[in-house]
Amino acid sequence: MTEDFQRFRGTPGYIASGPLVDAVNCAIALGRPLLLKGEPGTGKTVLARHVADGLGMKMLSWHVKSTTKGADGLYVYDTVQRLNDSRFGTGDVSDIRRYIRLGPLGQAFASAERVVLLIDEVDKADLEFPNDLLRELDEMRFSILETSEEVVAKERPVVLITSNNEKELPDAFLRRCVFHFIEFPDVGLMRQIVDVHHPNLDAKLLDQVLIKFYWLREQNELRKKPSTSELVDWISALLRAGMTHRQLEAHIPFLGTLLKKEQDVDALRDYDERKGKYPARWADLGPRFNQ
Prior knowledge:
Elements lengths: L17 H13 L3 E5 L5 H12 L2 E6 L11 E3 L1 H10 L11 E3 L1 H7 L4 E6 L8 H4 L1 H6 L1 E4 L4 E4 L5 E5 L8 H5 L2 E5 L4 H11 L5 H15 L10 H14 L3 H4 L13 H12 L18
Parallel strand pairs: 1-8, 1-9, 2-5, 5-8
Antiparallel strand pairs: 3-4, 6-7
C-alpha cells in the first residue's frame, strides 16, 4: 500500500486489527463514512478518538438518542432565547444569526481544518434518521433556512458511525458507507489489548484471566457475554485485591465486573453449587483454543 493511503496505523492506546486499519484508511481515501458494527465493548466508540489522535485532528461527537432528529446535527434555531431577549431587552433580536447554534455535523462542515466526527449509535434514532443525513453527507453542505446561508465543508470530515444492530439501517444509507464489523479479539490480539491497559502483568495471572474469560464467553446459557472493556475492569479489580494466579484456578471472583445480567450471575452460582469444575489450562477449553 502507498504511504498516502496508509494514513492511520493505530495508536499506542488502541490495538487495531489489520482489517480495521484498512477499513479506516479506505473510508478516508474514498471520503465515505465508516460504519462500525460489533459487540458492545469491542471499541467502536473509542476508535474515533484514536483515529483523531493518530491523524492529529480535532474530534467532534454526536451521541444519538431515541429522540434525535437529523436536523439536530446541523443546527438549532434557539427561538426560546430569542423570545426571552425580546421580552427582557437583553439582546439584539433582529440579528437571527445570534440564535443559530451549529450541531456536531454543522461544526464539522464549518471547521477550517479537517476533523474526525463520531456519530455514535445511529440505530437508536427512528428509522428515518439515517436517510435524513444522506444529502448532507454526500454533498458536505447544508442551508440555514432562517438566514438563507449555506454552510459548505472546507475540508471533508472523517466520519465514523457506530451501530449496535438495534435496527436495520436503510440500504440507501448503507450504500454510502464503508462497512466494518469489529470481530471479537482472538487470544493473541486480546493479550496485546490487555498489555495496553495493564502493562507487565504477570504472565501466569494473565493466562488464568484469559482462560476464565474465554470459558465464560463459551457458555451458551449466558444472555450477555463479557466484553473486552469488562475484562479490563476485571483485571483492575483482581490487581487491587492482590489476587494470584493460584487463587484464580478454582473460581472466578468479582463476577459483577464480568456479568451484568442477574440470570447470568445465577447461572454461575448454580454451576458452583453443582461443584462444577473451572478450566485451569488452555487444554481444558478444547481444540479451538489449542491450535
